[in-house]
Amino acid sequence: MNFVRPVLLSSAVFLTLLGCAKEVPKLEAEAIIKQEEVTEKPSDFVVYDPRVDILFVIDNSGSMDRAQKEVARNTRLFATEISRATLLDYHIGVVSTDMSARDDVGSYGKLAGFPNFVDKNTTEAVRKLSSRMLLGTDGSATEMMFAPVRAALSEPNQSTYNKDFYRPGAFLAIIFITDAAEQSGISGKDFLSFLLTKKINPEKVLAYGAIRKFKEADSCLKGVEPLDEKLEQFLASVTNGAPVNGQDQPNVVSLCDKKFGRKLADFAKDIVQRTANSIRLKKTPDVTTIRVFYGNQEIPNTYGTGWTYETKSNSIILGGDIPWDTTQSNPQLRIDFKVIEEKLK
Fold first, then answer.
1. Could you report how far apart the first and last alpha carbons of the chain are, in Å?
2. pLDDT of res. 26
3. pLDDT of residue 318
4. E-only strand ranges, 149-251
5. Are 270 and 244 contacting, i.e. CB atoms less than 8 angstroms apart?
6. What is the spatial distance between Cα 341 and Cα 283, in angstroms, rounded to a whole number?
7. 320 Cβ neighbours under 8 A, 6+ residues apart
8. Which of 110, 187, 288, 297 is deepest in the core (most CB within 10 A)?
């Protein structure tokens, strides 16, 4: 007997799919459409878990006054893009680049402010996040970007000052804002290894930078800080750091762009796209049979205000302008489709 394949996603949302078809060498395969009842086995799950922990690492040395104010002014644009993603469960925290002996706000990897992070339930979230961005400019002149992150995500901070910020299964997005070289004494390779021990899956690690680029050392804030390529090389090594079509790194913005703060919104859009708007399927669907529901609301197959199917990644892509019906009680995202399988001739 044939059945329609329902796939159900809740807050740690699961797409329950069939096991992989076996590949037999030297036999010609013919695509057929097969509808089967789903057997819920853990090995068949594809996880859709739209949670992300976003950590800003902000340089609080003497040369950063203008940059901090620009970021604070444009926090609304970043927060708006993040909050538009109805399904996204986010935590946003801020630390400084100061790992000196002083106990300044945000130093030593301790999240700034109280409560120590902002989430989707925080009242006046934009105002509170903006105030956290203004860490002052009396921090150590030895700016460290990697060490504060490691300290923030390790004990004793993880279970004390930063309690509940970090979630092991969530995506991790780090945003560096600095005009200086990374001076932690930790190599980019070792820092990435640390992050991967926390996340295992490299796709869960995202990084961005509003920085003074090495190639701009003689034109951007000349003489302010010495530079090297260490931070840029790390940013190029993460999942979202690869240049597209020969363009500049998509996750890096020049600190000398007077409107760089507004470009934080582009970082937010990328975070949303990678964490909440893409649902990867394990089996190939018959695209004509795909239906997407949010509770009782059927999401249309259209760009922007609905969903599309991406063949290359075998994913459902949710548009950024879907008018989600948030009046429903505990709605779940559901995807129905028929599977295309291979039949040997």
1. 22
2. 43
3. 93
4. 171-178, 205-211
5. no
6. 8
7. 84, 85, 269, 272, 273, 277, 304
8. 110
Residues 284-342 have pLDDT tens digits of: 888 998 999 898 999 999 999 999 999 988 889 999 889 999 899 888 888 888 888 75
Residues forming a β-bridge with 307: 318
Residue 226: both structure tokens together: 């010495």
Q: Does the pLDDT at position 23 exceed 70?
A: no
- The pLDDT, as a whole number, for residue 173 is 98
Beta carbons within 8 Å of 234's beta carbon, 6+ residues apart: 146, 182, 188, 191, 192, 207
CB 316 within 8 A of CB 279: yes
Q: What percent of the chain has pLDDT over 90?
A: 41
Is residue 129's pLDDT more than 80?
yes
- How far apart CA 218 and CA 262 sit, in angstroms, is 24
Q: Looking at the predicted structure, is the pLDDT value of residue 44 above 50?
A: no
CATH 3.40.50.410 residue ranges in the chain?
51-275
Classify 51-275 by CATH class: alpha beta
User: How many degrees, rounded to 5, is the angle at CA 131 between CA 127 and CA 134?
Assistant: 150
Smallest CA-to-CA distance from 91 within 59, 58, 124, 56 is with 56
Cβ-based neighbour number of residue 193 at 10 Å: 11
In terms of Cα–Cα distance, which of 80, 59, 54 is closest to 70? Answer: 59
Mean pLDDT, rounded, of the chain? 82
What are the b/e assignments for 18-39, b being 16+ CB within 10 Å? beebeeeeeeeeeeeebeeebe
Which of 24-38, 150-164, 173-187 shows the lowest mean pLDDT across its residues? 24-38
Q: Which residue, 209, 214, 197, 161, is CA-closest to 59? A: 209
Separation in Å, CA 243 to CA 10, 99, 203? 34, 32, 16
Could you tell me what percentage of the chain is helix, strand and coil, using 3-state DSSP and rounding each to the nearest 5? 25, 25, 50
